[in-house]
Amino acid sequence: MEFSKLNQSRHKVTQFDGRKVTVDEVKAILSEAVLAPSAHNIQPWHFVIVDSQEMRLALSTAMHGKNAVQNEAAGATLVIFSDTDLPERVRDMVEIGADFLPVDHKADLLMKLPGMFEKFTAEQLAEYLALNIGLVSQNIVLAANNKGLKTNLILGFDKVKAKEVLAIEDRFQPELIITMGYSDEQGTASYRLPVDDITDVL
């Protein structure tokens, strides 16, 4: 789909018809989404596809209000985690990408980045992760829209409870839930501030 049309047709949808989106379909979306830019190319994200009905219902206990109903009717639910152990993430990158990264680049990554990340304050870490998660999340909803799927981004959930329910490694912090699926609901365009009102030219 041409980008302008793709971008303009993406709207929040909260009513789904229950048709399943398969794990392979979600992975195909993620394969496109992870081409998103990330600071230092660290890609500090981790995804959990909540596929079983048992886990979907358990996750609903961590969600607020109508979000739980939406979660249970969606074709798929995706929980996006940030990786809070950035030095370890660098080491993972070098290990997993061993056959693709030039030797001198691997050495450079290991020499510079872990030490830099270890000096991050809690606030710096939170800001760094939030930026990167936002970038990949936008790609996810656009990639889903390109495949004819509707989506909604959910921030209204108990992160501590969600992490407990999903039992993911401690280094990963839940940031966002994306529901996706099929729907007759088209969503409506939200008001956007005019570009001239939010832009300075110096």
From TrEMBL:
The keyword Oxidoreductase applies. This is Nitroreductase family protein. PANTHER family: NAD(P)H NITROREDUCTASE YDGI-RELATED, NADH DEHYDROGENASE_NAD(P)H NITROREDUCTASE XCC3605-RELATED. InterPro entries: Nitroreductase, Nitroreductase-like. Belongs to the nitroreductase family. Keywords: Oxidoreductase. SUPFAM superfamilies: FMN-dependent nitroreductase-like. Pfam families: Nitroreductase. Residues 9-182 form the Nitroreductase domain. Gene3D superfamilies: NADH Oxidase. One of its GO terms (molecular function) is oxidoreductase activity. It comes from Pseudolactococcus chungangensis.
